[in-house]
Amino acid sequence: MSTLWRHEVDDWLRRALPGRCAFCLAACAPGRPWCADCHAALPWNRAACPVCAEPLPGTVTPRPCGHCLRRPPAYLRARVPLRYEGEVAGLMQRFKFHASPRAGMLLLTLLEEGLEEGGKAGQVGIAPPQALIAVPLHPRRARERGFDQGRWLAERLAARLEVPLIPARRKKDTPSQRGLDRRGRRGNLRGAFEVPRALPARVVLLDDVMTTGATLDALARACRRAGAEEIEAWAIARTPRETP
To answer: Global pTM?
Structure first.
């Protein structure tokens, strides 16, 4: 049985069996779409740089990483509760490339859960943003893909937070970031974004997956030009730490 077909069968079973875990089909935790064991086994990004959320070794006390000390990003901090591994990577691929609304809602719920847990764990307090801004796709790429996963997530999160969703514009259809190092990614995205209206002081940027942070950094710079002062970057998952 192919991986895609297996996922489709699993999704059908979960819809047909309400109250069952989205990952293993065991009984759900009360009010949650997952069981306690699967929730605990997810790749939570708890040991991470407090600025860019890059995963750190579990034995290291979280502190700003070398990249952030050498070149601080334009956003104040990133909040990314999960690592892009295992079940989270599978969910993201089904959402991003197969437009699975069930996978999207699970990812959004995990983001909210992670933000809530971070606040309880004593991280810097999360003040409600005055606006939400999704990382935009270039119009040509959006037409080709037929699905803008960032905007899909942002529309629903903005409604839950009861804040406006302000659109940004991608001025350049940048080449793929794959295979580029940090410097190459920053250069690839220089001047790529524009926010065509004045922003309030406190905004949150939203992406699905954060790799080096170059995309969110470039968007944050455009937001600063539009008047934002306190900018946070939120994403669902962060790719594993880069090797030197």
So the answer is: 0.84
Instruction: Evaluate if residue 56 carries a pLDDT over 70.
Output: yes
Q: How far apart, in whole angstroms, are the C-alpha atoms of residue 23 and residue 37?
A: 10
Tokens of 80: 């990314």
Tally of CB atoms within 10 A around 40: 9
Q: Which amino acid is at 23?
A: F
Contact 237, 208 (CB under 8 A): yes
Q: Name the residue among 168, 183, 154, 185 with its Cα closest to residue 220.
A: 168
Whether the Cβ atoms of residue 199 and residue 131 lie closer than 8 Å to each other:
yes
Q: Encoding tokens for residue 76?
A: 């104040």
- 233 CB-side CA count, 13 A: 31
192-231 pLDDT, tens digit per residue, is: 899 999 999 999 999 999 998 999 999 999 999 999 999 9
Of 244 and 86, the one with more pLDDT: 86
**Average predicted confidence (pLDDT) for the chain:** 83
